[in-house]
């Protein structure tokens, strides 16, 4: 197994937390970012995860993250960009919402990728990996979340650009899930409508995401691709 630290952003809850725990269980050392304090972070720290608080809206905070990782590590096995921000277009002025979406899903991932490029290119055990966790709507669009969908489509484009820039030393891919797991506050009516949108008519579950990440990390060949986890939703 290729070893070396992997930076996973947003490890405090949901997908990021599952990813961090999964990497630790597989013997892959993790650097994890978080924005808010969550109870689960204590367990991650005890398991050896190097935790760094990072606020994406704060330019200095992102620069500090890059400087800290660069100062503490000579190389990186990979980066998984998991941090995501989901709000409807009605949450504020279109410029405000769009700027926020683009900052979180495009600006900061690009800044982190560029800042940590020397560490990725210096990975000693085969090609390093960068994975952007995107969204099914990047290829479909959204009537109520246009800014979010557009920013996720731009994030997919980063995958195409960085894969060309860094090949063959770094593989860069996107994973575009539809429904991974419901939130606790989701009502029965919402759940029924959401499940009916895919052919499989069920939640993917976080394990499906873990399998996809493992597949990309274990491959020595796949790069510049957007891997869809949509349960056949594109055929409904």
Task: Note down, in words, how this protein is organized.
- By secondary structure, the chain is of the alpha/beta class.
- The protein is 43% helix and 14% strand.
- It is built from eight helices and seven strands; from the N terminus they run βαβαβαβααβαβααβ.
- It has helices at residues 14-25, 40-46, 59-72, 94-115, 117-121, 146-166, 188-195, 206-218; strands spanning 6-8, 30-34, 50-53, 78-81, 128-133, 170-177, 226-229.
- It has a seven-stranded parallel β-sheet, sandwiched between helices.
- Strand 2 (30-34), helix 2 (40-46) and strand 3 (50-53) form a beta-alpha-beta unit.
- Helix 4 runs parallel beside helix 6 (146-166).
- The radius of gyration is 17 Å and the shape is globular.
- The mean pLDDT is 92.
Shape, principal axes of CA atoms: globular
Secondary-structure content class: alpha/beta
Strand order of the largest sheet: 3-2-1-4-5-6-7
Q: From N to C, what is the helix and strand string?
A: EHEHEHEHHEHEHHE
List keywords for this structure.
7-stranded parallel beta sheet, 236 residues, single chain, 7 strands, alpha/beta, 43% helix, 8 helices
Task: List the topology elements.
Layout: E1 6-8, H1 14-25, E2 30-34, H2 40-46, E3 50-53, H3 59-72, E4 78-81, H4 94-115, H5 117-121, E5 128-133, H6 146-166, E6 170-177, H7 188-195, H8 206-218, E7 226-229
Parallel strand pairs: 1-2, 1-4, 2-3, 4-5, 5-6, 6-7
Helix pairs in contact: 1-8, 3-4, 4-6
